[in-house]
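Example (one chain per record):
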Amino acid sequence: MKVFFAFVKKEFWHVIRDKRSLIILIGLPIVMMLLFGFALTSEVKNSNIAILDFSKDAATKTLVDRIDQSQYFTVNKYLHSENEIEGVFRKGEVRLVLIFPQNFENDLSKDKKKQVRLVADASDPNTANITINYASAIIRDYQNEVNENKKLPYAIEMETRMLYNPQLKSSYNFVPGVMTLIMMLLGAMMTSVSIVKEKEMGTMEILLVSPMKPIMVLISKAVPYMVLCFLDIILILLMAVYILDMPIQGSLVLLLAESLLFIITTLSLGLLISVNVNSQQVAMFISLVALLMPSLIFSGFMFPIENMPLPLQVMSNLIPTKWYYSIVKAIMVKGLAFEYVVKQTLILVAMTVFFLTVAIKKFKINLEV
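Predicted structure:
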């Protein structure tokens, strides 16, 4: 074991002295968390809107003030005719136009109803739907106040609840997704070049004539990256809690244990890549291109797997990120216990055993050749 720890120590020094690797291992998680946490968010805030008010009474002024004071909208333009609507959309000046008809307050007080037209820029359908829903909610709140919350006959009322994320913060989705992508990217990419790097430098033969078994040489290559990736997990969780204001609902110990398992899975996959290629460029290409896109598409982070054709849904089961993303959401967001993630855990264990077994067999074959 002393020889093994000596090899691990040597690999640690190799990683620490490589400044580019350290920048990737430490800088990439920070940059991705900040980007996804603040810049790449699905929430729609401070959207510019225009007002076309044919009534200009107290009711419309109150509604406009409420919309402008909300965190979702900024009233930056007042129109005078409907002919101006298409022009502001063409210039990209606003996302939404609210049109108040004539005699708005008078008709509202008499008939208890009046139509407000919402015209949105649907070149981005998702954003258009979100802005319309936000504006409709503000108008409904105002209407309830005007009616003094009186229940109308035969009215159908809806009561909605948002479980696990009542404030609809996008960080509740992005943090688990970013954790998954970062660990997949770093674990597979960094270890995929570890063995092939020794081949290119001509130092593999020196390692193989050492007192340690070849299999232990293979494992010692992955240990430093396992420790550094685990530190990245802790860094990501600290940023999620203290910067993105996302609490960890479930067991922190369970979350760290599952993360360690996924790190081992990605490292095993990286070793499998490394023993099957002959150059660092090929290893980097496979780990970056061939793994990143499937990991992004089939994890369920960006695109719902249920919406995909059946063959792609079956294919997604072969991607480790799908199962780890499900685990992180279950523990971190929903606060579930281990019994709810047993299936995903066993699948990750099976993948890890498969990747390691194939990598070790291939490594032995390469040594015999």
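Caption: Residues 2-40+169-362 form one domain.
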